[in-house]
Amino acid sequence: NIVRPLDTDFRRFKHHLLRQLYHNLPPEQTKVFTYLQGVQQEIERILKQAITQKESHSSMLVGPRGSYKTFLLNHELDLLSARYHRQYITIRLNGFIHSEQTAINGIATQLEEQLKILSKDFKDSSKKTDISSGSLTEVFEKILRLLDSTFMGNNKLNDEKKNVKNKITVIFIFDEIDQFAGPVRQTLLYNLFDMVEHARVPVCIFGCTTKLNILEYLEKRVKSRFSQRIIYMPQIENLKQFRDTILELLTVPNKHEYRCSESWNSFIERELSNEKTELYKLVKTNYDTFRSIAQFKNAIIPLIFSSQSIESLRGSFESCERVKAHNRNQLQTSWTAKVESLSDLELAILICAARTALKTKDETLNFNLVYAEYEEMIKGLNSKIPTIAQTMKANENVPIVFDNAIKLWKKKDVKNIWENLQNLNFLTERGAVGLRESAQAVFYASNYQFLGTTIPFDLRVYQTQIDLKELRRVVPRSSMYYSWTQL
Amino acid sequence: MISYPEDVLFRDYQLKSVAAFVHGDPTIACPNLIIQGNSSSGKTYVLQKFFEANPSLINAWLEPIELVSWKPLLQAVVRSVQNKLKILFCDLAHKECDPLEVEEPFLLVKALWNIFSQYDSLPTDINFFLVLDGFDRLQDLDAALFNKFIKFHELINTKSKIHLKLIYMIQDIAFVERYSSHCLPMIVFPSYSIEQIIEILIFTRVEQLVMSNTLRERIIKQGVEECTDEQFVSVAANYIKLIVQAFHSYTGNNINALNDFIDFKWHSYVQKITKENIFDPLALYRSSINLFLTTDDSFVEDEDNRDNYNEPSQTYELSAISKYLLIAAYICSYLGPRYDSNVFSRRSYLKSGRSSYGRRKKMETNPRYLQPSLFHLERLFAIFQAIFPVERTTESGSLASLREEALIRANVEVFQNLAELHVLKMVSTTVTKNIDFLSHKTKWKVNVPWEIVLEVAKSVNFDISQYFSGL
Lengths: 487, 471
What we know:
By secondary structure, chain A is α/β, with parallel strands linked by helices. Chain A contains 22 helices and 7 strands. The two termini of chain A are 55 Å apart.
């Protein structure tokens, strides 16, 4: 491989295209997909009302993962920050990372941080910003006092109008807001939603969640304070829309900046409008299965990244070999691939395990039963194999036996296989809970001694993850164990 | 420009994909990358080689398996990031942040924010790759932890010069599938096939085997003179092939296990080399055939070998009472109480009445394969009494024989031995916590497999298998 210096124009073009895929261009260049623009305008309106008119709102964005909730919010805020960057501060919380307690600290530190930046601009260092110090109740009180009253300057006696102008909007962005809307108390949400109603500081709250029934999570008093504005993220509705979105994703808007952009845009459009092309087929498959732009992006980013010139980029889009390789790669640890990668003994034991599971009433098995089944299977196989009679060679002492028989591995050797199958997840302990949902549940479980760990190795009860019927479809017909894949 | 490491076999696709996501440009980089593959599929090796070939990429490694719980993991993230940055830009760091103060996921965000803000004077934006090698090997793993890690980047200042990129290496596909809706880019490392394993092992091990002292010494001792380096290499390569072919079914696609076999058997294999068979692989194989027939993967000597020594094998150094108690417990657990009187009753009846007929039909499955059933302590003592041999020390018919007990009683020693067996976890009870031994509700079961009971019974010349032959 000779490493040729890249064409600089193509390199810049590629870089632009990749940044576009990562939605990482400067805000004014970032495109928002057409199907999202309705919601974008709504978010923009809410934000503008909050920032310029100083109105308080609360709203929820509901949509599945990867439906551009955070992206739209960030994008709008970036756009607004160019014009109004002194008039608002943003506080971001994430329900995964913040708990009810730490969210208070999170709000305080972010307030402090943002006010420091603002006060630098205003050259008003008289304001003491030590919100985040002290005990938790103190901090919470300070935040509430700060937000509940006007907080820029102590000039309350001044002209009311002037005061309004000086007010700073606080925008809260909650990711995974349903985590804060837990079954007990919901203090944080209560206080924040209460501020929307009563505080003199304009507060704008955005909650992002994936739960469609988010309102059912909220307590009665919290729900009554929430302004009931729920924005459902739009979904791609038909194949044409999906195709157009992909087209938007891949076309480069600024036509004169790069030499190859124009031909590229027409190339992509051509590829996507012809139903015979590989690219179109992939888009259609994606639409039929995942219907996910992110999924598509993951596949084509390596493709674009590895291309060296506009010709090779086009060539790889025409063949889409790289994307197909990606799709193959994603499935290389699927159950089928895992079964195919097993050694012959592992496969034999797995088949025996599946046979044993099928025979027992509750589909459970243990090592003893499976080994007994294995012994029987190997004996059955060997009895069918024609054995060649023992022949004596000239050398009297060494009889040569043509041993065509299949080796019957010892019980202690098969134990290693048994553990391998467990590691590969083919076998799970009966009644196992697996991964716990929360750290607390893990803590409880780690203090509990499970029965399965105290009984001997051979007697532990397992269940198989793949049953005999499925195995029969995966094991090739040429395998000598194929006939054993049915009872 | 990205360069690829040379000495990585069968991972071209993976390397190219890694290069697409792991590079120096923060504007086109993904904050999270998953590398998934079963154990010994070369995940760590490939990534290490990749970073070695590209020294300009800043990276730090963490092994969550050593960190046990989520809190040390968070602290280790701060510590490693801070240390690495301090080494790289020693003139910029002003104040240190104590990693041990990070006790919450949110405090990690805060600490990273503070650390990164010290480097705002850097000329360009840089990517910092933090590799969490074996994220799912964290012992106290729960489903919520990974969610936290993949969202950290949203809370850390996007305008800072240092962009933290996390690379997760995960073995368990079921774990990854929990988070599939996040659509994180994932690179799968499939298991190697047997041909690939042979080639990899030859590539990595031959030199080491050829240079080993055992081979050198043997060659000198045997007086093999005309032997070129290529022939040495072919001897070693042939040995590796033989090992893989013999034990691949046993190890599966695990390269580490095969490496162990190579080390373990190389010495014995070399001892079989003579002047004649060094150039004749088949003859060498024939003379060392025993090495390739058994795994010898045990610290206990093989049963077949033990017979040669004629040693009385004793698995456990238990007292006679304990041994019989264990045997009795095994019988209690695996034989139905209905047929006890048929099996154990020996007294002639003074009163009229018929004895039990015993089992009529054979059982479908051998009960020894299944879990032990529970029994009451009285039944254990009854069977213990039935099977425990008491020698008569007195002459039969004498007056002294009237005073002698024909059978053993449950004396203090019996109870002591039983308690000891329980402590040794050879018999167990239904509940494991706060057991009330004196309660009549407590039921017992044996907790040793058949092989061990058989050995214990053999040591006291008790034929336990006859009790299980007629089932």
